[in-house]
Amino acid sequence: MSVSAAPPQQYAETHRDRFLDELFEYLSIPSISTDSEHAHEVERCANWLADHLRDIGLDRAEVHATDGHPIVYAEHCQQPDQPTVLIYAHYDVQPPDPLDEWDSPPFEPEVRDDKMFARGATDDKGQFFAHVKGLESHLATDDLPVNVKLLVEGEEEVGSEHLEGWVADHRERLEADSVLISDSPMFAPGLPTITYGLRGLAYFEVTVRGPSHDLHSGLYGGAVPNPINILSRMIGQLHDDEGRIAIPGFYDNVQPVTDEEREAFAELPFDEKEFREETGAPALTGEAGYTTLERRWVRPTLDCNGIWGGYTEEGAKTVLPSKASAKMSCRLVPDQDPERIAELAESYIEEIAPESVEVDFEPAHGGDPVVSPRDTATVEAAQRALSEAWGRDAVFTRGGGSIPVVPIFDQVLDTPTVLMGFGLENDRLHSPNEKFNLENFYKGIETSTHLWGELHQ
Ligand code: BES
Ligand code: MN
Ligand code: MN
Q: What is the rounded CA–CA span in Å between residue 47 and residue 43?
């Protein structure tokens, strides 16, 4: 790689177009982790990324097989007296469906109106790639002033099942002063943001069974239990009229929101009307006694994610279905425990189910909630880098989503995480027409180029 005299920011400016072309190559690989038919594409993506990390001049970049999708690990550690940052990201993406709602194909990235559109544009390929190009801008111009390790997994969107063991098995190799992640939104356009907490998750599936087979609803209806009617009624009993979750014990370990956080959230430039309009919902709703930001960041939730059963095709069919199912998930806050919450949910669901049906309860993946310290040297370096790139001081927020490995870094590696996201809340992550604003990509690269210098001691 040619060595230019220009500083990293200059290099990044000069190579803007190539950086975007390379990100488009990365985005065009359909690394959908949940779909086994795409396993070879997931693997291709891991290999593409490792090759790319080698090409930008990192000391080493490897693909590690797991019992699930591979893990990409890379490092560049040539400054023994300087801090080490472990950058975590995920190269897997959510499925793109419903496909017909995309204005351009999800794996054929396209720029419209100064935004790039593709599955993974913001979550998380584009945000992570900003660091890849920030690192390249140093490696190509001087040398990297600190040490970096990169851990990029292919199973984040399916619960990071195989990463926990891998992290525990590679404790020494992953040793670092801080974890850095860019996989969260900024609070508002142009407003740099550090996120210091994430909610945890408990996911489960409930099936209610009545008759052994579908029945004629005229011959049997009224006398035989209808699993859809019953499941719906049970779902209705999961919350009370105040929007609180009715599962006994659910709130036992919830840490109350502090006055300090309430005041800090209230000072953020939050426009509730704009937020509502962006969702398209006629009105907002939630747990009584809490603001919208509190409901989204520091209070737990229970949501049905999908519900099915009976006849859903064209026209009418008078059927009394034999079963009905729902997928449900709880977002958790400190100190709730995902396994305990799943157990409490199971007991309550069994208790409220009438004797006329049988209930199956299947727990799926989970993750712990986490809150990170705000007074570390890495947080302060991130604040300075963000101010330089965006011309404004960063705000601190918590996040409503989950990144299952963050609490693992805390518990297993004893390493705190800084979440410095470059995305926007309206980037439509997990939805059709996912996008990442070009400005956010380029400012993200600029932030990254500043960060490595700011971390130097
Ligand atoms: N990048 C998100 C997590 C996120 C979203 C953090 C919004 C902060 C704010 C991540 O890729 C994600 O979607 N996580 C899943 C985790 C789950 C599949 C285990 C989530 O939150 O649903
Ligand atoms: Mn993500
Ligand atoms: Mn995601």
A: 6
Same structural domain, 68 and 111: yes
Q: Whose CA is nearest to atom 5 of ligand 1?
A: 401
The per-residue pLDDT for 365 is 85
Instruction: Note the ligand closest to the C-alpha atom of 402.
Output: 1
Q: How far is the CA of 90 from the centre of ligand 3 (A)?
A: 9
Of the ligands numbered here, which is closest to the C-alpha atom of 403? 1
- Ligand 1: atom nearest CA of 195 is 8
Contact 233, 353 (CB under 8 A): no
Residue 2 within a domain: no
Average pLDDT for 325-339: 98
Q: Would the CB of 184 count as within 6 Å of ligand 1?
A: yes
Number of independent structural domains in the chain = 3
Burial 232-250 (b: 16+ CB within 10 A, else e): bebbeebeeeeebbebeeb
**Ligand 1 within 6 A of 94 CB?**
no
Atom 16 of ligand 1, residue of closest alpha carbon? 402
Q: 141 with 216, same domain?
A: no
Q: Is the distance from the beta carbon of residue 159 to the nearest atom of ligand 1 less than 6 Å?
A: yes
Residue 1 has pLDDT above 50, yes or no: no
- The residue from 339, 367, 395 where one domain ends is 367
pLDDT at residue 52 above 90? yes
DSSP 219: T
Q: Which domain holds residue 399?
A: 7-198+369-455
* Residues whose beta carbons lie less than 5 angstroms from ion ligand 2: 123-124, 183
Q: What is the mean pLDDT of residues 304-321?
A: 97
- Taking only the tens place, the pLDDT of each residue in 264-277 is 999 999 999 999 99
Burial 121-147 (b: 16+ CB within 10 A, else e): bbbbbbbbbbbbbbbbbbbbbbebbbb
Centre of ligand 2 from the C-alpha of residue 123, in Å: 4
Q: Of 322, 351, 367, which one is at a domain's C-terminal end?
A: 367
Residues 262 and 240 in one domain: no
CB count, 10 Å around CB of 16? 14
Q: Identify whether 1 is part of a domain.
A: no
